[in-house]
Amino acid sequence: MGTQLYTHDACARHDTGPHHVEQIARLEAVLSALKGEAFADLEIVTAPRATPQTLMLAHPEPFVQRILELVPSSGFAQADPDTVVSPESGEAALRAAGAVCAAVDAVIEGHAKNAFCAVRPPGHHAESNRAMGFCLFNNVAIGAFHSRTKHGLSRVAVVDFDVHHGNGTQALFWNDRDAYFGSTHQMPLYPGTGAISETGVGNIFNAPLRPDDGSQAFRTAMKERVLPALDAFEPELILISAGFDAHRDDPLGGLNLVEDDFAWVTRELMDIAEKHCAGRVVSALEGGYNLSALGASAAAHVDALMEA
Hints:
By secondary structure, the chain is an alpha/beta fold. The chain has nine helices and ten strands. An eight-stranded parallel beta sheet has the order 2-1-5-10-9-6-7-8, with helices on both faces. Helix 8 links the parallel strand 9 (237-242) and strand 10. The longest helix has 21 residues, at 89-109. The termini are close together.
């Protein structure tokens, strides 16, 4: 029982146009970085398709229908000014959410120790009734609610280290005392949420970072705010919104993290998972837009997962 990698070819056919930063090459960079001898024991699993009913764990039916009907038969359509869909986008979105749910099943049922979902479109900006920030459906929130519906879990946690605040996940968890959300992110930056004062019902733990903050500030924020609250929450499952755009080379952020920071936080999260939930961790790709940095960071993250 080791680490599983969930992905699907449809996620590499979600075309956002020739000049969009959330591009097909992102997934290619991640999957290329996860090849070779170091990842020989990584079990690759074809992501299943989520049903519309599964998406409705986090999103109302009219919204799900509207997004799926927006997908064009040719060309492009806009879910919002930043969020583009094309003919394969609906299938990609269903596979992305399906990957997270299948990975949740695998770690809870004992078929995998942990899992990484190399999927797109990303999800953490998607609110209950709004697609935004390159995201159509909130993959990690859907996975969290799926763990309750199918497996009877109660306390489920999401930790998000993308450079952009996961406003959608926060909004979906806002009034849910049994759902934990912890986030490091740059402020000010899109989407403008994530202040330390945003606490939900005592279950939201934001640790905003300033532009140009680096490894020390990131690790301090994790060690002083996000991780102690997660430990006290005693999660039954930890999901990770694994955005790698806090890397110092990323064009959309202004933080100065390096690959070892992503490996470090992964190990810290696994330690808490070992303490409370038999090591059950499911990670899903979010941002990361410098292809070289994205691949290297994802490799460091998955290598740390495989240490379990």
